[in-house]
Structure formats: structure tokens, C-alpha cells
Specification:
two-stranded antiparallel ribbon
């Protein structure tokens, strides 16, 4: 798929917020977004996002924009727990309006990240409350996300990423089976027509599992027709290589080559050696590089400081220059 592939220097979307930034101050949020765009351009990123600054966490693009969900006092993995009380309905665009505003700030086409419908269904379904099953909930969410993807593409967005931290290593007690999760994700990413350069990507997890079930992963790639897979590749494990080996030849891959959870910078020679190993598996022209995950998937819980984030992003840009020169 190397035809118009030019999103080499990537990141997941969320960035460390300025200290003291409040979601209750729209003017301050907009100023922070403008500064973030300038920041990403200065770092020579080939994608630009709003840093998730207008949202509480990486799920908020959907949860804040559709009906049918209720926030509870509980939390799961540090995130506020939401439950589905009815099948969701969207009253309008999720992020398309913000993507339009973002595009006005830069000549670089904006990237938009959304939570995947299967992830939301698996984490918000409550038996006996609203939807009859997690699959039913997931399908309703998939239609909403699919509609948003079509709208984003029609408005000129060329890179869209769906995040599902549970696909690579789903919990045993998930209300959504692996088979149902694949069916739901497939509904969301399907596009009858893809304009030139459009990539619909899926991030199936922040880290590789201890071991990879090859048949399971091959089914994941086969059943979900995403153009681009955003895979962990920052630990140098055999499992990370196995995830790449299973990827079909006609799919792009973005390798998360630096760890977004620790401040220590990776040794560049070690990273380049891992990429050399990856090129024995996958055409380098169908690759990109990024950090392993978002830097602040929750607004109030950044993984690194702003300066540590900057150093990581500079390292990603440097690695990309070593790999592809200035061909962006």
C-alpha cells in the first residue's frame, strides 16, 4: 500500500496538557490546541492532532457525544466507569467539527483518534441494564463510529485511528467475545470507497502479550479490514515480532518504537536494529514509527512530563530520518 504513504512520523493522538488547563475554559483549550499544532509542526511530525486537549480521556469523543451512557462513581484501570443504559444514539458529529477547525490551523492533514466500538461495548455493557447483549451494544456503536469515519473522510481527514487496548489480550471475563469484537470492529472500519491516501488504522493494544496465538492474530487481521495496524514494538520481544509476522502483506504498519511510559530515552542503535529486523518481515515503504501509546490518554494522568514527551517525539523523528531520509 505504499502508493501515497506519507505518515511516517506518527503519534497516537493524546499529548501532555499544559499545566492548569481546564476543560471548563474553552478559550484556554483552544489556545492550547493552537499551541499544540505549532508544537507538532516544529517537531516535524507528519500527523497533527488536537492532543485530546478538549476531552477528559481517549473515550470521550464518543461518550460525551452520544446518548445512552451514564457515568458512575466507580473506576476501571484508573478510568471513570461508564455504563450503557440504552442503545446509543448520536445527535451530531463526534469529532468532525473539531477536525475541520484543526485543518484550518495547519497545512498538514489532521489525524483523528477514536475509541473503538468493541472496546466501548466491552467496558460499558452491564447485564440487565439497557442493551440485551454486548454484541448489540457494539453494533450500535459501530454504526455511529462508521458514520463518523465516512464524514471525516468526506471532509478531507486522511488518517483515522481506532483504539482498542483489549484486542491483543482480552480479559477472560469480558462480556464481548473475541469473535463478536472482531465483527463489531469490522462494521466500523468498512468503507466501500477509500480516496487515495486514506488510512483507517486500528491499535489493538498498548503492549504485546507475553505470547502470541498466531491463529488468533491472523484472524484479527483477516476479519477487521483496517488499512493500518498500530503495533507495539518498543521492548524487543519475540511476541512483538510475531505480531508483525502475522500481518498481511497488503496492510500498512505503524511500529511503536519508543516507550511512552518511561522517561529514559531508547538507544537509537538498538531501535534501528529492531527496525532492520522488521524490514526482513515487512516492506519498509509500508511502515511508520511512533511512540508505543498516547502520552496522556487521561487528561489528569500524563505518563511523562512535557519535556520528556518532547524528547521522545524528537527521537521518533530522528529514527524516521534515519530510515527514510527526507521522503515525507
Amino acid at each position: 500500500m505504499a502508493d501515497t504513504f506519507n505518515y511516517r512520523i506518527d503519534h497516537h493522538g493524546s499529548l501532555v496538557r499544559p499545566v492548569g488547563l481546564s476543560l471548563d475554559d474553552p478559550e484556554a483549550v483552544e489556545t492550547a490546541v493552537r499551541d499544540a499544532v505549532a508544537y507538532q509542526r516544529k517537531l516535524r511530525s507528519t500527523v497533527v492532532t488536537d492532543g485530546d486537549f478538549p476531552r477528559e480521556d481517549f473515550r470521550s469523543a464518543v461518550l460525551d457525544s452520544v446518548s445512552g451512557f451514564r457515568r458512575t462513581d466507580a473506576s476501571v484501570d484508573g478510568l471513570p466507569r461508564w455504563v450503557a443504559e440504552a442503545l446509543p444514539k448520536a445527535s451530531g458529529p463526534l469529532l468532525a467539527d473539531r477536525a475541520t477547525l484543526l485543518a484550518q490551523l495547519t497545512v498538514i492533514a489532521p489525524k483523528v483518534a477514536l475509541p473503538s466500538p468493541a472496546y466501548l461495548a466491552a467496558t460499558t455493557f452491564e447485564p440487565g441494564l439497557g442493551p440485551a447483549s454486548a454484541r448489540e451494544l457494539g453494533e450500535a456503536l459501530a454504526e455511529i463510529v462508521h458514520t463518523e469515519i465516512e464524514l471525516l473522510v468526506s471532509q478531507g481527514v486522511r488518517l483515522i485511528q481506532l483504539n482498542n487496548p483489549l484486542l491483543l489480550d482480552p480479559p477472560a471475563d469480558s462480556p464481548l467475545s473475541f469473535e463478536d469484537a472482531l465483527a463489531v470492529e469490522a462494521l466500523a472500519v468498512r468503507l466501500d470507497e477509500r480516496p487515495e491516501g486514506v488510512r483507517i488504522g486500528v491499535c489493538p493494544g498498548w503492549a504485546a502479550p507475553a505470547t502470541v496465538d498466531r491463529a488468533r492474530v491472523e484472524r484479527l487481521y483477516a476479519d477487521v479490514p483496517a488499512d493500518r495496524w498500530i503495533l507495539p514494538y518498543d521492548q524487543g520481544t519475540e511476541a512483538e515480532r510475531d505480531l508483525l509476522k502475522a500481518l498481511p502483506e497488503d496492510r500498512d504498519v505503524c511500529l511503536g518504537v519508543v516507550d511512552a511510559t518511561v522517561p529514559e530515552l531508547e538507544d537509537i542503535d538498538t531501535v534501528l536494529a529492531r527496525i532492520d529486523a522488521a524490514t526482513e518481515i515487512k516492506d519498509i515503504e509500508d511502515m511508520a514509527v511512533s511512540p508505543s501509546r498516547g502520552f496522556a490518554d487521561q487528561a489528569n494522568r500524563p505518563l511523562l512530563t512535557s519535556e520528556e514527551q518532547r524528547q521522545k517525539l524528537i527521537l521518533v523523528e530522528t529514527i524516521a530520518r534515519y530510515c527514510w531520509g527526507n521522503e515525507f
